Automatic annotation (TrEMBL):
This is CDP-3, 6-dideoxy-D-glycero-L-glycero-4-hexulose-4-reductase. Pfam families: AAA_31. InterPro entries: AAA_dom (IPR025669), DNA_Partitioning_ATPase (IPR050678), P-loop_NTPase (IPR027417). Residues 4-162 form the AAA domain.
Amino acid sequence: MTHTVVMHSHRGGTGKSTMLANMALLMAAEGRRVALIDTDIQSPALDVLFRLPHGECSLTDYLMGSCEIEDATHQVSPEGVYLVPARTDASSLGQIMTRGYDVGLLPEAFSRLGDLYDLDVLLVDTHAGLNNETVTSMASADVLATALRVDRVDLAGADEIVPLAWQLACRRALVISMAPEGADAEQARKRAERVYGAPTVGVLPYVAELAALGGNQIFAEAHPGHPLMAEFREIISALV
Ligand SMILES: Nc1ncnc2c1ncn2[C@@H]1O[C@H](COP(=O)(O)OP(=O)(O)O)[C@@H](O)[C@H]1O
Ligand SMILES: [Mg+2]
């Protein structure tokens, strides 16, 4: 059975794509069969982080009926991480926004990917806030992970996400990103848990070396010995 983890946030820039890319590489290195699917059609990131060439078949092409999901699935690391990019060129965004698509195709893709690649884990990246792809992805989740910074805007997102999450059968968890240091971190964690009504499975600090990479390399590849790897591994064991 494939375990589906959906990573979501109320606001952009909370580190969802960064976390998922790193977690996928670490999981594959441990021998798990893992795929990433980027449902963030508005602002895709995983194709860039994994340096997928422009014009490769994508989730958008699949949703528009121009290819099968396996045509849109690319092996992006020697350890065997598979990636379905959201889209790899600009023109398809206009097409999908004007034409729309059958939302049933997304859960169908998740289950087909699990079967075809015999996946242990499917990691689903999402656009910030709520849209069709995100809500549909959430409905297929075994675990819904919410990434947030502890500031008032990210906490305000709970008003929208919590009522929706109550209707889902999945487990929920929080990952606090770019956390303040020291005693503030503990307070931040308690506040996030109170507001979102879910346990925290990871608290990631702001890491200057990660920001300095500027997306040129995935952190786990550039700094495999960094203490952040232990944090990512803890998140993996709590979510999977
Ligand atoms: N823990 C961190 N410390 C420092 N910078 C980070 C951290 N996590 C992510 N970033 C940076 O923040 C930016 C946004 O991250 P990203 O993963 O694209 O967020 P999202 O997918 O939630 O929009 C990127 O430039 C990324 O390198
Ligand atoms: Mg992203």
